[in-house]
């Protein structure tokens, strides 16, 4: 059985957003049952799933590796994470050799504020409706490093209803973003957010990782995001666990001062969870999320990710 209607993806639309719109436009009343019928099992249409069985609607087995790469770069978070992932994981994704569709997994996902919740910009919703006739979920809005919209820079990305606190974790429930809460009916207004130097740098660098992915097998900033922190730490004189441990308290205070707690679930920084452990960043760089590495780089005085190459 095949889905009778597959909507064309809009520029910068997340692939799973297109899948959700397709399921909605078929007129099926139970999207979960529909997903199970079409894709074999019901896996949540979540931004935390980098490779999803539902993506096969847009990336069938007959599609070339070059075609798969183009779709993944433009319509998923694989480009953003490709700088950090092991080479064999990226190759497996490109060659469609992944059996577990929740893999590769995002490191420390349970500690990341934005990793499992779909976000949108109210201004983009209105503009997309005028231009395309419908709103949709954009890839750039799901970056864990972004707090505001990349197009409307002073407006915060919305992740929940301000009245009832409802969130969207599965697009089967809310296939299209709306400025009216589907749960309580409250109108969701744009929110102004003022960046500081650190949050502004982290957001811009995160967007750079997304946009500079290029060849997923050898992305532009692969060396920096996989090996650069230990080199930068050594350059700053943090050689050995004792010196790194001595800098740990300063790093946590620095994170709190610059509102880095916004990227993580409550109390993560205060409890000194290893997601912000400098020693772990230096030794096990791939086991911490990109936002942690970017905060560490900025703490060590990095002005541009190109400086680490």
Which characteristics define this entry?
0% strand, 11 helices, TniQ, globular, 309 residues, TniQ family protein
Question: Please, could you describe this protein's structure?
Answer:
It comes from Alishewanella maricola. Residues 113-152 form the TniQ domain. This is TniQ family protein. It holds the Pfam family TniQ. InterPro entries: TniQ (IPR009492). By secondary structure, the chain is mainly α. Among the domains are: 15-110, no CATH class; 221-308, no CATH class. Helices cover 38% and strands 0% of the residues. It has eleven helices and no strands. It has helices spanning 15-25, 31-39, 65-75, 78-82, 87-94, 122-132, 197-211, 222-235, 241-257, 278-283, 290-299. α7 (197-211) packs across α11. The model has no long low-confidence stretch (mean pLDDT 88).
Can you give me a brief rundown of this structure?
The chain has 309 residues and is mostly helical. It is 38% helix and 0% strand. 42% of the residues are buried.
Taken in chain order, the helices and strands follow as HHHHHHHHHHH
Largest sheet: none
Please state the structural category.
mainly alpha
User: Rough shape?
Assistant: globular
Q: Name the helicity range.
A: 25-40%
Please report the distance between the alpha carbons of the first and last residues.
Answer: 49 Å
Low-pLDDT segments? none
Query: Number of DSSP helices?
Result: 11
Number of strands: 0
Indicate the mean pLDDT: 88
Give the C-alpha Rg.
Answer: 20 Å
The fraction of residues in strands falls at: under 5%
């Amino acid at each position: 059985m095949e889905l009778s209607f597959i909507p064309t993806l809009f520029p910068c639309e997340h692939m799973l957003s297109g899948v959700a719109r397709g399921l909605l436009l078929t007129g099926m009343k139970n999207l979960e049952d529909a997903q199970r019928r079409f894709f074999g099992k019901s896996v949540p249409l979540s931004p935390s799933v980098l490779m999803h069985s539902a993506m096969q609607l847009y990336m069938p087995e007959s599609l070339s590796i070059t075609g798969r790469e183009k779709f993944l770069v433009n319509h998923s978070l694989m480009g953003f994470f490709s700088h950090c992932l092991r080479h064999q994981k990226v190759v497996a994704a490109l060659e469609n050799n992944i059996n577990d569709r929740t893999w590769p997994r995002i490191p420390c996902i349970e500690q990341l504020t934005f990793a499992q919740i779909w976000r949108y910009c109210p201004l983009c919703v209105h503009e997309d409706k005028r231009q395309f006739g419908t709103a949709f979920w954009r890839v750039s809005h799901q970056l864990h490093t972004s707090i505001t919209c990349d197009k409307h820079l002073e407006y915060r990305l919305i992740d929940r209803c301000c009245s009832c606190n409802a969130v969207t974790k599965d697009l089967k429930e809310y296939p299209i973003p709306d400025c009216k809460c589907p749960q309580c009916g409250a109108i969701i207004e744009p929110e102004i957010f003022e960046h500081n130097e650190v949050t502004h740098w982290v957001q811009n660098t995160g967007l750079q990782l997304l946009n500079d992915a290029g060849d997923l097998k050898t992305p532009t900033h692969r060396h920096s995001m996989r090996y650069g922190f230990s080199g930068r730490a050594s350059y700053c004189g943090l050689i050995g666990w004792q010196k790194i441990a001595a800098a740990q308290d300063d790093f946590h205070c620095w994170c709190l001062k610059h509102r880095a707690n916004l990227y993580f679930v409550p109390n993560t920084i205060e409890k000194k969870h290893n997601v912000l452990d400098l020693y772990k960043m230096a030794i096990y760089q791939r086991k911490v999320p990109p936002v942690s590495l970017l905060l560490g780089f900025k703490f060590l005085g990095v002005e541009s990710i190109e400086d680490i190459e």
